[in-house]
Amino acid sequence: MLTYGNQNRRTLRNSASQPPTSRRSARMGAAVVELAVCIPILVIVVVATTDACTMFHVQQNLKVAAYEGARVGIVPQAEAENVSYQCESLLDAQGVNGFSIAMEPSDPGTLKAGDYFTVTISADFKDNALVGGLFADKTLTRSVTLRAE
C-alpha cells in the first residue's frame, strides 16, 4: 500500500505543477508576437550593417585606386592613359562598377616638379551594393593629391 500512495502523490504533484492549457497557449501566443516583432527589426539591422560595410569597402577601394593612379601620374613624362589604366585595372580587380576618373590637371605630362596632381574617383553605390536599399542614392567619391617629382 505504501507504494500505491507514493504513486498517487507523484501523479498529483505532476498534474499540479503543469499550467492549465489556456496558460500554455497564452505563452505560445506571446512568443509568436515577440518573434513577429523582433524578426523584421533583426533583418533591418543585418541589411543595414551589410550595406554600411560594403559602402566602407567600396570607399577604401576608391581611395587606393586614386592613390595608385596619382603615383603613376606624378612621375616625369606621365600620360593620362597610364593613370586611367592603373585606376581601372585596380577597380576592375576589386569588382567596383560604374566608376568615373577625373584628373587635375587633365594631362599629367604638363606637371613640373613641385606641382600638385589630383586624382578623383567616383562611383554610384547602387551599382556596387550587395543588398542595396538603404544607401542606394549615395555617390561615393575619393580624391588623392600628390606632389609631382
Automatic annotation (TrEMBL):
<protein>
    <submittedName>
        <fullName>TadE-like protein</fullName>
    </submittedName>
</protein>
<dbReference type="InterPro" id="IPR012495">
    <property type="entry name" value="TadE-like_dom"/>
</dbReference>
<dbReference type="Pfam" id="PF07811">
    <property type="entry name" value="TadE"/>
</dbReference>
<keyword id="KW-0472">Membrane</keyword>
<feature type="region of interest" description="Disordered">
    <location>
        <begin position="1"/>
        <end position="24"/>
    </location>
</feature>
<keyword id="KW-0812">Transmembrane</keyword>
<feature type="transmembrane region" description="Helical">
    <location>
        <begin position="28"/>
        <end position="48"/>
    </location>
</feature>
<feature type="compositionally biased region" description="Polar residues">
    <location>
        <begin position="1"/>
        <end position="23"/>
    </location>
</feature>
<feature type="domain" description="TadE-like">
    <location>
        <begin position="29"/>
        <end position="71"/>
    </location>
</feature>
<keyword id="KW-1133">Transmembrane helix</keyword>
